[in-house]
Amino acid sequence: MPPACAIVLPAAGLARRMRGGDKLLENVDGMPLLRHVATQALQASDHVAVTLRPSAAERLAVIDDLPLTILRIPDADEGMAASLRAGAGWARSIQSSALMIALPDMPDITAADFRALIIAQAKHPDHCLRAASADHVPGHPVILPRMYFAAMQALQGDQGAREILRAHPPYLRPLSGQRALTDLDTPEDWDAWRKAQG
């Protein structure tokens, strides 16, 4: 059977705001963040892809033993759209009914969150879905049904799927606390997050 919902982790960015570090290699629960998020995603879907620059050897090394698909992004300098185009093309090729875009720099999203979002979107399969904080502030991940894959493949630049979501307002599915909003882009973000973890 075609997968109900595939998951793409767009990991082809340069993490420039880390000032020389790589946020996706930061330690979370004893493993690099990228591996942590990929492992959570694989507990929710058998079809997970990670987008990477061709030169991203260190990122590849932390996930290359996992049962997922690597999508090489030679035009990654364009921005997020390059990853989303590749993700949508991959999802179409495996005949997925929907595609979750899960940012790989969000360490608080759990496998249970991924599963809850997939189940919620399946109840409204023709609509987009977006995770939100407990107080309903829109965040990530986002799920787009198959009917929008062609629009994803036409995206340009670094705006992600913003235009699609603006044209087709998503259902909001709150997650506990603020974890749908917690992405860690700078050393200061990481310091604050680690202090909050105790």
Molecular structure report:
- The chain has 198 residues and is an alpha/beta fold.
- 31% of the residues lie in helices and 19% in strands.
- A seven-stranded mixed sheet has the order 5-4-1-6-8-7-9, sandwiched between helices. Strands 2-3 form a two-stranded antiparallel ribbon.
- Strand 2 (27-28) and strand 3 form a beta hairpin.
Provide tags for this entry:
9 strands, 198 residues, Spore Coat Polysaccharide Biosynthesis Protein SpsA, Chain A, two-stranded antiparallel sheet, alpha/beta, 7-stranded mixed beta sheet, 7 helices
Content of β-strand: 15-25%
Poorly predicted ranges = none
CATH superfamily: Spore Coat Polysaccharide Biosynthesis Protein SpsA, Chain A
Please give the order of strands in the largest beta sheet.
5-4-1-6-8-7-9
CATH architecture: Alpha-Beta Complex
* CA distance, first residue to last residue: 44 Å
Short synopsis of the structure:
With 198 residues, the protein is α/β, with parallel strands linked by helices. Helix content is 31%, strand content 19%. The longest helix is centred in the middle third of the chain and has 14 residues, at 80-93.
Secondary structure topology:
Elements: E1 6-10, E2 27-28, E3 31-32, H1 33-42, E4 48-52, H2 57-61, E5 69-72, H3 80-93, E6 98-101, H4 111-122, E7 129-132, E8 138-145, H5 149-152, H6 162-167, E9 171-174, H7 187-197
Parallel strand pairs: 1-4, 1-6, 4-5, 7-9
Antiparallel strand pairs: 2-3, 6-8, 7-8
